[in-house]
Amino acid sequence: MDKLVIEGGKPLSGTIAIQGAKNAALPILAASMLVNGTVTIEHVPKLLDIEVMLSILRELGCKADHIGDKVVLDTSSAHSPHVPETLMRQMRSSIFLMGPLLARFGEVHVYQPGGCAIGERKIDLHLSGLEALGASISETGNKIICQADKLVGADIHLSFPSVGATENIMMAAVLAEGRTTISNAAREPEIQDLQRFLNTMGARIMGAGTDTITIEGVDTLTPCRYQVIPDRIVTGTLMVAAAATRGQVVLQNTNSSHVSSLIHVLRRSGIQVLTDGDIIKVNASSRPKAIERIVTSPYPAFPTDLQSLVMVLLTLADGVSIMKETIFEGRFKHVGELTRMGADIRVDLNAAFIRGVPRLYGATVEATDLRAGAALVVAGLAAQGRTVVEQVHHIDRGYDRIEQVLSRLGARITRCTPVPDDRAVTNG
Predict the structure, then answer these.
(1) Facing residues of 37 across strands?
(2) Catalytic choice (116, 146, 224, 416)
(3) What's the distance, CA 169 to chain centroid?
(4) Whole-angstrom distance, CA of residue 379 vs CA of residue 362
(5) pLDDT, tens digit (0-9, with 9 covering 90-100), for 293-335
(6) Predicted structure pTM score
(7) 205 near 170, Cβ under 8 Å?
(8) How far apart are CA 402 and CA 419, in angstroms?
(9) Residue 343 DSSP class
(10) What is the rounded distance in angstroms from the CA atom of residue 180 to the CA atom of residue 128?
């Protein structure tokens, strides 16, 4: 497994453009199955999760090329509604294919998806939503089969504003007969991006970004060219990295409204954040201040995906901060690793109490999931001495060559790749 080796203690400085959003690109790639033809998606990052999705689409019969940041996907030769179990277990987002495949083929065969181990993430809302549209669902072992001779619009209320369920229902309902209404829908920017993509192909969807989405079914969709929105979590990662290292960073190709809750948190901690069009500037010349209480909640509140990253900043703040996690029960796995670096954190159920320390110290730590791994990289950048982050494959699921991005901002970070004779190859 690759490792990241970081020599910490150097403020980040410079200008960099933000990659396209993984969590927008994945459902958009899945939604491309709703059309018969060639779809071109731009601003798609080179990530493990993206490559897994493209591998699945190829297994279904599609032709897919990922050149630079552009994916050209020809779905006209798609012939199978059966998602391979080996690939599905590598990535939770493969569940997005349920709605499109059901709408296209009248059936879909999937398995319980894999992904980061950050807590229980059931797919019952996905299944109940598809059932409401007319699908029959059966399970054999860990295999799930959905079938429907015809999908018909319905009024669907989600007991929790699940992003994945909202998107799956949207995609299935696009070709359903009549109107579908999703109430208590998730409101994330990625859902708004999916609506724009589907509408560009001829769908009739309104309300994404609010808690009620309305879909008027259409007979067919037509191929299109589309550009994915910037990744708000990568944006947030680099903002926090600048703050934790007391640096000055300019981020291009951003949407500041997508990270407004983080901007509010950083300003509360004394970090200067300026926005101008698609540019965000972060200036952190002094030690941050503690924040009494931060609670993760569905968008537009503070996102769970930035919880571990902001916790790193709070370990270096003056005073005691409280971070409460309300989305995933397994999202504090990074706490033990931060403690190894000198952090003072106590966890009580779903709350973490963080007492700021003068500095963090380099250590060998392990990324247990995507966002925890990113947090440990930021901690290593801010720490005194050398930090080695293991299990980097988790980080590669969401960050396009994170070591190269950070190096452009002046970070001293290299990737070490083991070779068969136990010698390491270093890629800076």
Answers:
(1) none
(2) 116
(3) 19
(4) 8
(5) 999 999 999 999 999 999 999 999 999 999 999 987 777 889 9
(6) 0.93
(7) yes
(8) 21
(9) -
(10) 14
